[in-house]
Amino acid sequence: MTTTSSDLSDQQLAAKAVALRREMLQLIFRAGAGHTGGGMSCMDILNALYNRVLRVSPETFGDPGRDRYVQSKGHCVEALYTVLADRGFFPKSDLETVCHYQSHYVGHPTRHIAGVEMNTGALGHGLPICLGMALAAKMDRKPYRVFTLLGDGELAEGSNWEAALGAAHYQLDNLIAILDHNSLQITGYTRDVMNSEPLDEKWQSFGWNVRSVDGHDYAELGKALSDPPEPGKPTFIIANTIKGKGVSFMENNAKWHHRVPTEEELEQALAELDEAEARLKEVTR
Amino acid sequence: MSAPAPSMYDAAATAVAERLGLAKGKANLEVFAATLEELARENPDIVAVTSDSRGSGKLAPYGIALPGQIVEVGIAEQNLVGITAGLAACGKKSFGVSPSCFLTARSLEQIKNDVCYSDVPAVLVGISAGVSYGALGSTHHSVHDFAVLRAINNLIVVAPADNFEAREAVRAAAASDTPVFLRFGKAALYDLGDAPFALGKARVLREGDDLAFIATGETVVHCLLAAGHLAETTGRQCRVISMPTVKPLDTEAVLAAAAECGAIVTAEEHMVHGGLGEAVAGVVAQSDFHPAMRIMGIPDEYTVTGSQADIFRHYGLTMSGLAEAAGPLLEKRRPAPTPA
Ligand SMILES: [Mg+2]
To answer: How much distance in Å is there from the Cα of A234 to the middle of ligand 1?
Structure first.
């Protein structure tokens, strides 16, 4: 039987997110590679998923009735590894080897890693895969849900729109696509590179139930991710996020798409995160 | 008055087929659809996924008989492969069925990543493959599919030569824990005997030591006819090897042919680049045997306009063309090296 994750309050999740961001930056620094900006922007989404929403745990990962999560924006693997390790899918010490010679921890998710459902990294693949998974759940009359995380730059891939049609056609209300809407991609602002707005109207017109939230607010995120679907409609959550969230000099800066911090930058970033943690403790006290 | 439908088999080839006792079968596509339906009736986890292709895949009766075990995705081949992979990842035995020309080009990245790299037990079925679509032209031909799929890790690539191979290949694919690609044409085929079938194994259809024909898919029968014709006209005995599995290649059978026959003619309904012929050449070139070789297939050009039969004749993939290609090799046949 699948179990839900721990019952952390919004404040506890926010405190955990600071620790997760710290660990992810250290991971990227050690690996000498990584997608820093996007990892920071989607960390709260992953934290909410794995520590509140998903009915999956290290113990139930082999259960056919578990919720599925496929990270379509596979390049933000460092955020995923950090959250999975924290959740106990594998020892945190494994993360010492990310991207190192002969490590199983590749720079994109693979099923060799406990907790990873599918190998991703080429963009525009997660949603069609999740459509198939959600169909399988419906065919087997199983109650599991299927979640995917998309990047906003990724939405220029046409395969997403094939799946957008298909998921609505098959009324897959067990499918939830989350958009990490940080408005940036490697070249710059998504609206300048290839504008995909207005996203809410587009997805609504494709037949999806659309929910727009602050992607760093656990109350909003938790509600959007957990509220029951509109019957017969897949759910599209526009999580408005900040690329590089949590470190002032990384925020809203496309340069940090896949830049690895120098030792000085890492120290500065960690210091900022320490301050944020102290402020959170002040609030919760 | 319309011209009679062109045949793969001229009067001479038909006569050889008769003397070899070959019986006429159906199109492999029909056998695929019937076998899949048979299996799906027993296994409710079998799901066919189609991209507006159930008609061309001969799956319309399947769709009527088992409406809960077919998923239509519309004309969207990338989505087709992603969905097929997702179904397989969640316990379904999914068969993604689409014309090979689209399936193996447009959705190649989904094949590579979602199916093969993720290692889900999905089956991809390239229908109306090779030059089955004839005069519809190069957009509809898949003479690249072996080449691109051979270059992808973790995929068994199978092109059955007759109804028996087709039936066995579908069954083997349904039982496989790893990804399989099946390639079917729509021409009626001769039955080529009952040599046993297994994934990854060659089938020796005819014994002989003067030359080996190694072929796959719908060209195999023409090699068998060419061998019959050569035996009748020259007394030379040519081995005929059906190689339903293009990857992984049965290297043992290839090396035995190289060692014992000293001359090899390969044939395939595929471009000469990257297909069975080059796979065979790669094996023998790195062996102690250096047989004379000729790779028969479509040259590096846009395929001549015509029916599948016209195209086969044009590129020498029929009995007379293959016998002609074998001629010079039979003349200069090199003996196998004697061990030191
Ligand atoms: Mg972005």
So the answer is: 22
The per-residue pLDDT for A138 is 98
Of B190, B219, B240, the position where a domain reaches its end is: B190
pTM beyond 0.90: yes
Residue A282: per-residue pLDDT? 84
Q: What is the pLDDT of residues A164-209, one digit of tens each?
A: 999 999 999 999 999 999 999 999 999 999 999 999 999 999 999 9
Q: How far is the CA of A183 from the centre of ligand 1 (A)?
A: 5
Q: Confirm or reject contact between A112 and chain B (CB < 8 A).
A: no
Q: How confident is residue B334, by pLDDT bands cut at 50, 70 and 90?
A: very low
Q: Which residue of A has its CA nearest to B73?
A: A166
Residues B241 and B175 placed together within one structural domain of the fold? no
C-alpha distances in Å from residue B1, one per residue of A116, B4, B305: 64, 9, 22
Count of structural domains within chain A: 1
- Is A125 in Cβ contact with B86 (below 8 Å)? no
CATH code assigned at B313: 3.40.50.920
CATH number at residue A87: 3.40.50.970
Residue A132 to residue B68, Cβ atoms within 8 A: no
SS3 B30: helix
Interface probe for B, chosen from A71, A129, A174 (most Cβ of B below 10 Å), is A129
C-alpha distances in Å from residue B233, one per residue of A153, B15, B17, B19, B219: 66, 13, 15, 13, 21
Q: Are residues B45 and B125 in the same domain?
A: yes
Mean of the pLDDT values across residues B66-94?
98
Domain-located, residue A106: yes
* Residue whose structure tokens are 């038909």: B14
Cα of B88 to nearest chain A Cα, Å: 8
Domain match, B119 and B222 both = no
Share of chain B above pLDDT 90, in %: 94
Beta strands B188-190 and B24-27 are: antiparallel
Host domain of residue B17? 11-23+195-330
Q: Are residues B152 and B233 in the same domain?
A: no
Neighboring chain B residues of A234 at a CB cutoff of 8 Å: none
Domain count, chain B: 2
Structure confidence at residue B144 as a pLDDT band (50, 70, 90): very high
Structural domain including A225 reads: 10-284
* In a domain? residue A60: yes
Instruction: Kindly give the distance from the C-alpha atom of residue A42 to the centroid of ligand 1, in angstroms, as a whole number.
Output: 10
Buried b (16+ CB within 10 A) or exposed e, A260-278: bbeeebbeebbebbeebbe
